[in-house]
Amino acid sequence: MDGAVVIAGAAGAREALLALARRALEAAVTGDAPPCAAGVPVFDQRAGAFVTLESGGQLRGCIGQLEPDRLGDVLVHCARAAALEDPRFVRVAPAELPQIVVELSVLTPLSPLADPALVEPGVHGLVVAHRGRRGVLLPQVAVEWGWSAEEFLCQTCRKAGLPEDAWRDGAKIFTFEAEIFGEPP
Question: Where are the domains of the chain?
Answer without folding.
Answer: 11-108, 111-177
